[in-house]
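EI: anyone free to look at a 233-residue chain?
SC: sure, send it
EI:
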Amino acid sequence: MSTSVVASLLEKTKDFSIEETLAFLANEYPNQVVFSTSFGQEDQVITDLIGKNQLPIKVFTLDTGRLFQETYDVFHKTLKKYKTEIKTYFPDTIAVESLLNQKGPNSFYASVENRKECCFIRKVAPLTKALKGNAIWITGLRAEQSENRSDLNFFEYDAHFDIIKFNPLLKWTLPQVEEYLEKNNVPQNSLHKQGFVSIGCAPCTRAILPGEDIRAGRWSWESSHKECGLHQK
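SC: here you go
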Protein backbone atom coordinates (compact mmCIF):
# COMPACT_ATOMS: atom_id res chain seq x y z
CA MET A 1 0.00 0.00 0.00
CA SER A 2 2.72 2.49 0.97
CA THR A 3 4.58 1.89 -2.31
CA SER A 4 1.49 2.63 -4.37
CA VAL A 5 0.74 5.79 -2.35
CA VAL A 6 4.28 7.07 -2.89
CA ALA A 7 4.04 6.34 -6.62
CA SER A 8 0.69 8.13 -6.79
CA LEU A 9 2.02 11.20 -4.97
CA LEU A 10 5.07 11.35 -7.22
CA GLU A 11 2.83 11.24 -10.30
CA LYS A 12 0.22 13.72 -9.08
CA THR A 13 2.77 16.33 -8.00
CA LYS A 14 5.42 15.91 -10.70
CA ASP A 15 4.59 19.27 -12.31
CA PHE A 16 3.85 21.14 -9.07
CA SER A 17 6.00 23.79 -7.45
CA ILE A 18 6.99 23.24 -3.82
CA GLU A 19 4.23 25.60 -2.67
CA GLU A 20 1.66 23.79 -4.80
CA THR A 21 2.78 20.41 -3.47
CA LEU A 22 2.60 21.59 0.14
CA ALA A 23 -0.91 22.97 -0.45
CA PHE A 24 -1.95 19.75 -2.19
CA LEU A 25 -0.73 17.61 0.70
CA ALA A 26 -2.44 19.81 3.28
CA ASN A 27 -5.71 19.45 1.37
CA GLU A 28 -5.30 15.74 0.64
CA TYR A 29 -4.38 14.84 4.24
CA PRO A 30 -6.11 17.41 6.47
CA ASN A 31 -4.55 17.66 9.95
CA GLN A 32 -2.17 14.82 9.10
CA VAL A 33 0.74 16.73 7.56
CA VAL A 34 3.62 17.72 9.85
CA PHE A 35 6.90 19.50 9.35
CA SER A 36 9.83 18.91 11.70
CA THR A 37 12.21 21.84 12.07
CA SER A 38 15.57 22.09 13.79
CA PHE A 39 15.85 25.72 12.59
CA GLY A 40 18.67 24.91 10.17
CA GLN A 41 18.89 26.68 6.83
CA GLU A 42 16.83 24.15 4.87
CA ASP A 43 14.16 24.03 7.56
CA GLN A 44 13.93 27.81 7.60
CA VAL A 45 13.20 27.81 3.85
CA ILE A 46 10.32 25.39 4.38
CA THR A 47 9.04 27.32 7.40
CA ASP A 48 8.96 30.46 5.26
CA LEU A 49 7.02 28.69 2.50
CA ILE A 50 4.48 27.36 4.99
CA GLY A 51 4.23 30.61 6.94
CA LYS A 52 3.87 33.14 4.16
CA ASN A 53 1.33 30.95 2.35
CA GLN A 54 -0.56 30.30 5.60
CA LEU A 55 -0.72 26.59 4.90
CA PRO A 56 -2.51 24.37 7.45
CA ILE A 57 0.57 22.29 8.19
CA LYS A 58 1.61 21.51 11.74
CA VAL A 59 5.16 22.58 12.60
CA PHE A 60 7.08 21.02 15.46
CA THR A 61 10.60 20.87 16.85
CA LEU A 62 12.56 18.60 19.19
CA ASP A 63 14.24 20.25 22.16
CA THR A 64 16.90 17.80 23.26
CA GLY A 65 17.90 19.88 26.25
CA ARG A 66 21.40 20.39 24.83
CA LEU A 67 20.84 22.87 22.01
CA PHE A 68 22.92 25.96 21.30
CA GLN A 69 21.62 29.28 22.62
CA GLU A 70 21.84 30.48 19.01
CA THR A 71 19.26 27.84 18.07
CA TYR A 72 16.87 29.15 20.70
CA ASP A 73 17.48 32.67 19.37
CA VAL A 74 16.43 31.77 15.82
CA PHE A 75 13.49 29.78 17.27
CA HIS A 76 12.29 32.97 18.97
CA LYS A 77 12.82 35.12 15.88
CA THR A 78 10.91 32.60 13.77
CA LEU A 79 7.94 32.66 16.13
CA LYS A 80 7.86 36.47 16.00
CA LYS A 81 8.11 36.66 12.21
CA TYR A 82 5.50 34.04 11.26
CA LYS A 83 3.24 34.22 14.30
CA THR A 84 2.49 30.53 14.10
CA GLU A 85 2.70 27.76 16.67
CA ILE A 86 5.80 25.58 16.68
CA LYS A 87 5.01 22.69 18.98
CA THR A 88 7.95 21.55 21.09
CA TYR A 89 8.62 17.95 22.10
CA PHE A 90 11.03 17.13 24.92
CA PRO A 91 12.69 13.81 25.82
CA ASP A 92 11.20 11.76 28.60
CA THR A 93 12.45 13.11 31.92
CA ILE A 94 12.87 9.70 33.58
CA ALA A 95 14.85 8.35 30.61
CA VAL A 96 17.22 11.34 30.65
CA GLU A 97 17.65 11.14 34.43
CA SER A 98 18.39 7.42 34.20
CA LEU A 99 20.97 7.94 31.43
CA LEU A 100 22.82 10.64 33.36
CA ASN A 101 22.63 8.78 36.67
CA GLN A 102 24.06 5.62 35.11
CA LYS A 103 26.57 7.02 32.62
CA GLY A 104 27.05 10.70 33.34
CA PRO A 105 26.48 13.73 31.08
CA ASN A 106 29.07 12.92 28.39
CA SER A 107 28.63 9.19 27.78
CA PHE A 108 28.12 9.80 24.05
CA TYR A 109 31.85 10.43 23.60
CA ALA A 110 32.72 6.90 24.75
CA SER A 111 31.28 4.89 21.86
CA VAL A 112 28.96 5.02 18.87
CA GLU A 113 26.54 2.83 20.80
CA ASN A 114 26.45 5.29 23.69
CA ARG A 115 25.99 8.22 21.33
CA LYS A 116 23.11 6.51 19.56
CA GLU A 117 21.55 5.73 22.94
CA CYS A 118 21.62 9.43 23.79
CA CYS A 119 20.24 10.35 20.35
CA PHE A 120 17.45 7.82 20.77
CA ILE A 121 16.38 9.19 24.14
CA ARG A 122 16.68 12.86 23.22
CA LYS A 123 15.56 12.77 19.58
CA VAL A 124 14.16 9.52 18.20
CA ALA A 125 11.71 8.74 21.00
CA PRO A 126 10.24 12.30 21.01
CA LEU A 127 10.05 12.21 17.20
CA THR A 128 8.10 8.95 17.35
CA LYS A 129 5.59 10.71 19.59
CA ALA A 130 5.41 13.75 17.31
CA LEU A 131 4.80 11.71 14.14
CA LYS A 132 2.19 9.38 15.62
CA GLY A 133 -1.19 9.59 13.86
CA ASN A 134 0.12 11.63 10.92
CA ALA A 135 0.35 10.65 7.25
CA ILE A 136 2.98 12.98 5.78
CA TRP A 137 6.27 14.08 7.32
CA ILE A 138 7.95 17.05 5.62
CA THR A 139 11.72 17.22 6.01
CA GLY A 140 14.57 19.50 4.98
CA LEU A 141 16.74 16.71 3.61
CA ARG A 142 18.92 17.48 0.59
CA ALA A 143 20.65 14.89 -1.59
CA GLU A 144 24.07 16.56 -1.34
CA GLN A 145 24.07 16.58 2.47
CA SER A 146 25.56 13.09 2.63
CA GLU A 147 26.25 10.02 0.54
CA ASN A 148 23.47 8.25 2.44
CA ARG A 149 20.92 10.75 1.10
CA SER A 150 22.03 10.92 -2.53
CA ASP A 151 19.53 8.28 -3.69
CA LEU A 152 16.44 9.69 -1.96
CA ASN A 153 13.29 10.63 -3.86
CA PHE A 154 10.89 13.52 -3.26
CA PHE A 155 8.47 11.10 -1.63
CA GLU A 156 9.68 8.12 0.38
CA TYR A 157 8.06 5.62 2.71
CA ASP A 158 9.81 5.55 6.08
CA ALA A 159 9.18 2.05 7.41
CA HIS A 160 10.74 2.81 10.80
CA PHE A 161 8.14 5.49 11.58
CA ASP A 162 5.46 4.10 9.23
CA ILE A 163 4.97 7.43 7.49
CA ILE A 164 5.50 8.99 4.07
CA LYS A 165 8.24 11.60 3.88
CA PHE A 166 8.19 14.58 1.56
CA ASN A 167 11.63 16.07 0.85
CA PRO A 168 10.84 19.31 -1.03
CA LEU A 169 14.41 20.66 -1.11
CA LEU A 170 15.94 17.38 -2.21
CA LYS A 171 17.58 18.75 -5.36
CA TRP A 172 18.53 22.16 -3.97
CA THR A 173 22.16 23.10 -3.51
CA LEU A 174 23.44 24.95 -0.44
CA PRO A 175 23.96 28.17 -2.46
CA GLN A 176 20.30 27.99 -3.56
CA VAL A 177 19.21 27.64 0.06
CA GLU A 178 21.37 30.55 1.15
CA GLU A 179 20.15 32.73 -1.72
CA TYR A 180 16.50 32.05 -0.82
CA LEU A 181 17.06 32.91 2.83
CA GLU A 182 18.79 36.19 2.03
CA LYS A 183 16.29 37.22 -0.65
CA ASN A 184 13.30 36.56 1.59
CA ASN A 185 14.82 37.91 4.81
CA VAL A 186 14.32 34.63 6.66
CA PRO A 187 15.70 34.35 10.23
CA GLN A 188 18.89 32.29 10.36
CA ASN A 189 21.01 30.71 13.03
CA SER A 190 24.00 33.01 13.53
CA LEU A 191 26.28 29.95 13.78
CA HIS A 192 25.98 29.47 10.02
CA LYS A 193 28.18 32.54 9.56
CA GLN A 194 30.80 30.87 11.75
CA GLY A 195 31.24 27.74 9.64
CA PHE A 196 28.48 25.63 11.16
CA VAL A 197 26.47 23.96 8.38
CA SER A 198 24.61 21.11 10.08
CA ILE A 199 23.65 22.18 13.61
CA GLY A 200 22.45 19.77 16.27
CA CYS A 201 23.22 19.47 19.96
CA ALA A 202 26.00 21.74 21.20
CA PRO A 203 28.40 19.02 22.42
CA CYS A 204 28.02 17.10 19.16
CA THR A 205 28.45 19.89 16.60
CA ARG A 206 31.44 21.88 15.40
CA ALA A 207 32.19 24.22 12.52
CA ILE A 208 33.59 22.60 9.39
CA LEU A 209 36.80 23.57 7.64
CA PRO A 210 36.98 24.62 3.98
CA GLY A 211 36.68 21.54 1.77
CA GLU A 212 35.28 19.30 4.51
CA ASP A 213 32.11 17.26 4.01
CA ILE A 214 28.89 18.93 5.15
CA ARG A 215 28.37 16.30 7.85
CA ALA A 216 31.95 16.49 9.15
CA GLY A 217 30.86 18.83 11.90
CA ARG A 218 28.49 16.30 13.45
CA TRP A 219 30.00 13.79 15.93
CA SER A 220 33.43 14.72 14.62
CA TRP A 221 35.15 12.15 16.85
CA GLU A 222 33.35 9.32 14.98
CA SER A 223 33.94 7.66 11.61
CA SER A 224 30.34 6.39 11.37
CA HIS A 225 27.71 7.39 8.80
CA LYS A 226 26.91 10.43 10.96
CA GLU A 227 23.19 9.74 11.43
CA CYS A 228 21.24 9.92 14.67
CA GLY A 229 18.25 7.72 13.85
CA LEU A 230 15.82 10.43 12.81
CA HIS A 231 16.53 9.61 9.18
CA GLN A 232 17.70 6.19 8.11
CA LYS A 233 19.27 7.88 5.07
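EI: The longest helix spans residues 112-131.
SC: 👍
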